[in-house]
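Supplementary Methods. Inverse-folding protocol.

Structures were first reduced to a discrete structure-token string of length 218. This string, shown here, constituted the complete conditioning input.
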């Protein structure tokens, strides 16, 4: 596969996800600066975690207007696959590629720790390999991970099996329905606040590999 990682000012997980894609899944990876557009077609576009310029206004609110995002929107229209992690998830919601929005955590603090997750919908193909109550331990690191969508949208996400993961036992940021990540209706666009790319080695825990294995098998 050929993948592009969009790099914004403040991105701090861009090299992490590039390492995962190259080392574990043998992708050809291009790092694309946010002021440029995608120069070719890619199988996957990743919006990595970290920060993007303008986050002081609202996370991802300004980054959605970056020249690279025009290419990402075109990539989505062609049916291309997109993965947004943490700040990338925030940018996806601000761009309208995924519904809802991300607010400040209810405790108004940045939270950085391992958290437990379970699959959010029983029939979402991106988590089809997981058992219904299988628990994954994945790191989070964010100050605005409080996912919110109106009741009708949440109902639709449930009915269409579009909830990717839910927080298990502890909801660290106050997200509605314990939602930790969602997908588009065709499951080609996925966004989540936890960082599976930070849980790929024995010394970090390897539950992130369960996410990526399933994601790439779809």
């Amino acid at each position: 596969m050929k993948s592009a990682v969009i790099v914004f000012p403040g991105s701090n997980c861009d090299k992490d996800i590039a390492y995962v894609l190259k080392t574990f899944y043998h992708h050809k990876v291009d790092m694309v600066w946010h002021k440029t557009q995608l120069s070719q077609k890619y199988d996957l576009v990743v919006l990595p975690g970290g920060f993007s310029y303008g986050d002081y206004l609202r996370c991802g609110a300004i980054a959605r207007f970056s020249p690279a995002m025009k290419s990402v929107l075109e990539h989505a229209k062609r049916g291309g696959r997109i993965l947004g992690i943490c700040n990338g998830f925030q940018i996806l919601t601000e761009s309208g590629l995924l519904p809802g929005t991300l607010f400040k955590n209810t405790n108004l603090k940045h939270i950085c720790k391992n958290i437990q997750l379970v699959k959010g919908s029983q029939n979402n193909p991106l988590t089809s390999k997981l058992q219904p109550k299988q628990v994954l331990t994945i790191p989070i690191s964010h100050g605005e991970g409080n996912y919110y969508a109106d009741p009708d949208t949440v109902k639709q996400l449930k009915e269409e099996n579009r909830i990717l993961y839910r927080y298990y036992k502890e909801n660290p940021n106050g997200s509605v329905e314990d939602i930790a990540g969602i997908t588009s209706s065709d499951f080609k666009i996925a966004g989540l606040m936890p960082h599976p790319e930070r849980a790929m080695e024995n010394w970090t825990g390897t539950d992130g590999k369960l996410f990526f294995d399933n994601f790439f098998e779809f």
